[in-house]
Amino acid sequence: MSRRSRIAFTKLEALGNDFVLIDARSTSIRMEPSRIEAMSDRRRGIGFDQLLLLRPPADPECMCHVEIYNSDGSSAEQCGNGMRAVALWLHRLGEFDSSARIETLAGPVTLTWQGADRITATLPPPDFSPRSCGLDDDGEFPVTLQLDNQRFEVLGAAMGNPHLVMPCREMPDASEVEQLGSRLGSHPALARGANVGFALVSDPHRLHLQVHERGAGLTPACGSGACAAATALIRTGALTSPVEVVQPGGTLVIDWSAEGDPVAMTGPASKVFEGVIAWAT
Question: Residue 2 has what pLDDT?
Fold first, then answer.
């Protein structure tokens, strides 16, 4: 007769980008890719874009280390919207009032609380080298990627996780973002795949964006993708900080001063529900 383990979780969302958060700071929990993928199923599981697993931090000045997993079970280095979801959860627990630091694979993130609708996550500086995005190229963006007989000129920025940015004159529809984003994001030239953002500048302080996320697909919003697209286009002179990044799930505000500086991303997050996972061990 099998035993059943019970694990508490919280479902959270930030601009429709949804997460399951599990606090493993005081327990030993193993998350295998197949189990994560099963949990992420929106018909037979809980459903989420990313799993946020809190572990004890290596740095005593940080509140926790956040392991990030995509819905397909793969690991991710960063998740901007997820950082705000973590902030909301920690604040609701009473673990911080106004600011805190947490760890990710991409480096430390500073969280600033001004209310559930104004949470700021300050991410480490972007890296604009093609090599940081997994390309075997010591030059600079833009670079050209070829698919079949078409050539696509893309910008890029690594926020710990790799992002390609496709400037657009017209925003493609969701099916095209899904199809082309998937193909570009898994291009053979990319060592570990990439998120792909389709970006339309409407004025110097406003950007429309749709992102196909590596390991999760088309999502209503991508926080690190908003940071990557805004900073890459600020760098070209097409945008000026601060930038409102409008995505299907809502709007983020990105503040970035100059190369080498961190990126501040401000937006909302909310709790959806709590539950307990029970599975055979």
Answer: 47
The CATH number linked to 68 is: 3.10.310.10
Residue of 62, 64, 133, 222 marked active site: 222
Do residues 9 and 32 share a domain?
yes
Same domain, yes or no: 148 and 247:
yes
Q: What is the pTM of this model?
A: 0.96
pLDDT at 1: 38
Average pLDDT, the chain: 96
* Tokens at 73, concatenated: 């079970």
| Domain carrying residue 30 | 4-124+268-280
Residue 79 appears among annotated catalytic residues: yes
Is 222 tagged catalytic?
yes
Specify whether 136 is located in the same domain as 243. yes
pLDDT of the residue at 281: 57
Regarding whether 154 and 256 lie in a shared domain, the answer is: yes
CA distance 243 to 241: 5
Residue 141, helix vs strand vs coil: coil
* Strand-pair category, 206-213 with 243-247: parallel
Q: Which of 62, 64, 79, 227 is catalytic?
A: 79
